[in-house]
Design goal:
- The complex is a heterotrimer of chains A (376), B (264) and C (322).
- Chain A has 11 helices and 10 strands.
- By secondary structure, chain A is α+β, with helices and mostly antiparallel strands.
- Chain A folds into 3 domains: 108 residues, Orthogonal Bundle (Butyryl-Coa Dehydrogenase, subunit A, domain 1); 105 residues, Butyryl-CoA Dehydrogenase, subunit A, domain 2 (Beta Barrel); 150 residues, Up-down Bundle (Butyryl-CoA Dehydrogenase, subunit A, domain 3), CATH 1.20.140.10.
- In chain A, the strands form 3 sheets. A 4-stranded mixed beta sheet of chain A has the order 1-4-5-8, covered by helices on one side. A 4-stranded antiparallel beta sheet of chain A has the order 2-3-7-6, with helices on one face.
- Chain C has 8 helices and 18 strands.
- Classes of the chains: A alpha+beta (376), B alpha/beta (264), C alpha/beta (322).
- Chains in contact: A-B, B-C.
- Strand 11 of chain B pairs antiparallel with strand 13 of chain C.
- Chain A: This is Acyl-CoA dehydrogenase.
């Protein structure tokens, strides 16, 4: 581990590890199978204060920094990636409200972030990140904004109660608004039938003449793309932590199995071909972990972290799939079985190349950044 | 009504897998940080629930070296209000009697305490003596190995005490000393917010000068018992017979043996 | 100097002397040399439990009869013990390391200002010194403890550590003491006692035990084990992790901080064999263990070992004994 945790961070890490071992680890496969978090777990997550982890203390949170939040996401993801994914969606949204909302809006909504899930919504059925394709919009009427449209593929859609939504305020500009599910005209839509991260719902919302006051605008008019990008960067540190967590999970399963399973009276861990796979998984895990931890350190130090965070997610997204695939191979027939936890690791890990910016989009971003660095 | 509760806690080694130095015959203590004695978490949880119900204040009390601070902070992070660490070279080497004496003097100094809670025993020394010793020194009622608590109006509490083959319902009035079984509750986790706040709280550190203690009753001097020697017990391995083949084959082989020994 | 005495506190639950008391009498007689073995019995006026105790042949039984002793609290008993101790100055006082023993003994210890060693696994005398062997750190370490300068020397002993032996033709003297001051405890009273028909007592005394560990936490395996237990007339015990299962509690636990079992037949299912567990089964006669892990330490304690699946084994077993 390349990071030094402070004393409160060590205690947090111990608490999260205990919690996750006791409450999450035993139901990892159940969460995948039931496509939901048991209510009991959800209650424990909320009551133990996980939602307010990075929220400043003045709003009732714990005020932990990105090093601590990414460590927490990692510790959870080692036991179940989906619960980590749900918290990731919440944390990055809360971060944007904290950064861009007016003091009044923060005063009103941030204390709720300790017990209500926040979700970030940008994608539309007709277009991903392409602003031109978007139709959902916000129109100013007097001192109110009237919001209309349909948004999809929202992490925690349906589970979240408060949303940051990117809406068109003119043909070429997006702005970000905070919307509450309690507002008249707000409706949840269907949940996507995804192949992995099964505890986390990904769903859609409908806005039908939802009226919000002016202070529900985050940042300035037209700042939506920037806020969306910023949310991605914050998310990618945590997505890197999820990738490292899945990879560690795969490593543990593979090692335990290889030590125990014998072929011709020898544990298969002594076979070179198995050792190679385990080594590959271990190297991948270390690499992903170093990347997301570096990004977290940069963020805590107030430096630019977008590039490294994006590297953590783009590398981690692929490495974790490969790692889980190696683990599957080590377990052979059991790895391919639904009764063993490896196959769902592949399905879970596969999400990381798509959510919070596709692999392709990230590649473009990293290459641009790399080229820019060399032109300066 | 509000309660002033003291919870006595102890820091224990992370693992009980200790080794003995073959030459000095002393315990080799790993450099690893200790953890809170698991039963003490049940005692803290019991205190927190009483506080939730009746209001009041919970003070953690521990005796040991400075690094016990980490365990007291964990207790604060679970939601306790204050912490006192009894730490001094003079307290070192104390057995249960000397420990119980110093704790009881500290409880007297804290003052106006309604209830003192202990975990049923520590997982390292496994004595379960200190709770009753403290209640004797305070001359308070004790209810040990409690699995349930119901507080009524005023300062009357009904406890269920689990014995090996019976249970007792015991009614008592405060102030009193209780030792808590694991069955009593599921301890809450420290919340992230409380973890942060626990590091902003002061832990009071008291030594023999802060307490009114008889110097002959503390530390090694105040301890009647002496550890003459320690060793790691050698377990003789049985010569086990492995049953081979499928489960069915193994069982057939086993049954022959069991029948031969008249065990079925 | 008067004859030296080893005292044993007679523990009774709902009117029955607990086996540990008899075990202590037998052990005390074995190590006493010329010391007298004296049992201290507190009972209600309508009881004559001294008759049961006599069968184990202590030199003397001191009986205190008082109806308030039916449900006396820890501190009341500790007070009476302290008074008696002051009168006769015993060399040592022994208790069972039971809930009651572990509650009264330290209270008495504090009153007398002497040493007490809890949960001993062996006792011996070296002249007048009681050598007390006590496990520590979850039975990973043994300590030999003495109390050189204070009397009485006090110890509590883990139940089922020693075997009890009845003696024929005993010459036990029964001494009734009826001039003790019964100081009624203020602010605490036992309002109800209910025998637990369950489990823990029966595991500790069961002849056949099926023990389940982490590797047998699957509901299917548990129900198979229950069925087999019914068929064999065995009791189910568990390791610590399974006490969190809704079907079990700490009362069913075997091992350190649980029960010590002494069955004729013990079947360990899915138990890895940490020291904390194995100290609780050492006195079993025949041990069979089933575990997936060929390196599980449990096999070192077993007479018969099967490396394989618990479910298959239990199903196979049930099939055969149908």
């Amino acid at each position: 581990m390349s990071i030094e945790l402070t004393q409160p961070q060590v205690m947090l890490h111990q608490m999260v590890t205990d919690f996750a071992d006791k409450k999450v680890k035993p139901i990892d496969m159940l969460i995948d199978k039931e496509r939901d978090f048991p209510e009991e777990l959800w209650k424990d997550i909320v009551n133990t204060g996980f939602l307010g982890l990075s929220l400043p203390e003045e709003y009732g949170g714990a005020g932990f920094d990105a090093i601590a939040s990414s460590q927490t996401i990692y510790d959870l993801a080692v036991r179940n990636a989906s619960i980590a994914f749900t918290l990731e969606g919440h944390y990055k949204t809360v971060d944007q409200v904290l950064k861009y909302a007016t003091p009044e809006l923060k005063e009103k909504y941030l204390p709720q972030a300790t017990h209500r899930i926040f979700g970030f919504s940008s994608t539309e059925p007709q277009g991903g990140s392409n602003v031109m394709g978007h139709t959902a919009n916000a129109v100013k009427e007097g001192d109110k904004w009237v919001l209309n449209g349909n948004k999809t593929m929202i992490t925690n859609g349906g589970l979240a109660e408060v949303y940051c939504v990117l809406l068109k305020t003119s043909p070429n500009e997006l702005s970000c608004f905070l919307v509450d599910e309690d507002m008249p005209g707000f409706k949840h839509g269907k949940r996507e039938e995804f192949i992995g991260m099964n505890g986390t719902p990904v769903g859609e919302i409908f806005l039908e003449n939802v009226m919000v006051s002016e202070d529900h605008l985050l940042g300035k008019i037209g700042q939506g793309v920037e806020i969306g990008d910023n949310a991605h960067y914050d998310a990618r540190i945590l997505m890197g932590a999820i990738a490292a967590g899945i990879t560690e999970h795969a490593l543990t399963i593979a090692v335990n199995y290889a030590k125990q399973r014998e072929a011709i009276d020898t544990p298969i861990i002594q076979l070179h071909s198995i050792q190679t796979k385990i080594t590959e998984i271990a190297i991948a895990k270390e690499n992903v972990q170093l990347l997301y931890q570096e990004a977290a350190k940069l963020k805590v130090a107030g430096k630019s972290y977008a590039k490294v965070a994006t590297m953590a997610k783009s590398y981690g997204g692929r490495a974790s799939v490969t790692a889980a695939d190696h683990a599957l191979q080590v377990l052979g027939g059991y790895g391919y079985s639904r009764e063993y936890p490896v196959e769902h690791l592949i399905r879970d890990a596969r999400a990381l190349q798509i959510a919070e910016g596709s692999l392709e989009k990230m590649m473009i971003e990293i290459s641009k950044e790399v080229v820019n660095e060399r032109e300066e | 009504m509000s309660l002033k509760i003291v919870v006595c806690i102890k820091q224990v080694p992370v693992s009980n897998n200790l080794k003995i130095d073959p030459i000095t015959k002393n315990l080799i203590r790993s450099g690893e940080q200790g953890i809170m004695n698991p039963y003490d978490k049940n005692a803290i949880e019991a205190a927190l629930r009483l506080k939730d119900e009746w209001g009041g204040e919970i003070i953690l009390l521990s005796m040991g070296p400075q690094d016990f601070e980490i365990t007291l902070r964990e207790g604060l992070a679970m939601g306790c209000d204050g912490a006192v660490l009894l730490s001094s070279r003079q307290f070192g080497g104390a057995d249960t009697l000397a420990t119980g004496y110093v704790l009881s003097q500290a409880i007297k100094k804290i003052g106006n305490v309604d209830l003192v809670l202990f975990g049923r025993q520590s997982v390292d020394a496994d004595t379960s003596q200190v709770g009753p010793i403290v209640s004797e020194f305070l001359n308070w009622p004790q209810v040990t190995f409690v699995s349930e608590l119901h507080s009524h109006s005023g300062k009357t509490i009904t406890a269920t005490r689990l014995l090996e083959n019976m249970q007792q319902k015991i009614e008592f009035q405060l102030p009193a000393v209780i030792t808590v079984r694991r069955e009593m509750n599921e301890p809450r986790y420290p919340t992230p917010r409380n973890i942060q706040q626990s590091y902003k709280k002061d832990i009071q550190v008291w030594d023999e000068n802060n307490l009114s203690v008889d110097p002959d009753r503390i530390g090694v001097k105040g301890s009647p018992t002496i550890v003459r020697s320690v060793w790691a017990p050698e377990k003789e391995a049985k010569s086990t017979k492995y049953l081979n083949g499928s489960a069915d084959e193994a069982i057939r082989e086993l049954l022959i043996e069991l029948n031969a020994n008249n065990l079925l | 100097m008067t004859d030296q005495e080893i005292w044993i506190y007679a523990e009774k639950h709902v009117g029955i002397i607990q086996p540990v008391t008899y075990q202590l009498i037998t052990k005390a007689k074995e190590i006493a040399d010329d010391k007298k073995v004296v049992v201290i019995l507190f009972e209600a006026t309508d009881k004559n439990l001294e008759n049961n105790i006599m069968e184990y042949g202590p030199d003397e039984i001191i009986v205190v009869k008082d109806d308030r002793l039916k449900d006396a609290t820890d501190s009341e008993i500790a007070n009476l013990m302290a008074e008696l101790t002051k009168r006769r100055q015993p060399n040592s006082i022994l208790f069972g390391a039971t809930v009651v023993g572990r509650s009264i003994a330290p209270r008495l210890q504090a009153k007398l200002g002497t040493g007490l060693t809890s949960d001993c696994l062996n006792l011996a005398f070296d002249d007048d010194f009681l050598i007390q062997t006590k496990p520590s750190y979850g039975d990973n370490i043994m300590c030999e403890i003495i109390c050189p300068d204070h009397r009485p020397q006090m110890a509590s002993v883990r139940p089922n550590t020693f075997a009890a032996k009845k003696i024929s033709n005993t010459t036990t003297i029964v001494t009734e003491v009826n001039d003790l001051m019964f100081k009624e405890a203020e602010r605490v009273k036992i309002i109800e006692e209910t025998p637990l028909l369950s489990k823990s007592d029966s595991i500790a005394n069961a002849d056949r035990v099926i023990a389940l560990g982490r590797g047998a936490s699957d509901d299917k395996v548990i129900s198979l084990a229950e069925e087999l237990a019914r068929k064999l007339g065995a009791k189910i015990g568990v390791t610590r992790p399974l006490t969190d299962h809704s079907k079990f509690s700490g009362e069913d636990q075997i091992g350190q901080s649980g029960n010590t079992v002494t069955p004729k037949l013990l079947i360990n299912v899915g138990i890895h064999g940490a020291v904390q567990y194995t100290t609780g089964i050492e006195k079993s006669e025949l041990i069979i263990s089933i575990n997936k892990d060929p390196k599980a330490p449990i096999f070192k304690y077993s007479d018969f070992s099967y490396v394989g699946d618990s479910k298959d084994f239990l199903e196979g077993f049930l099939k055969v004994i149908q």
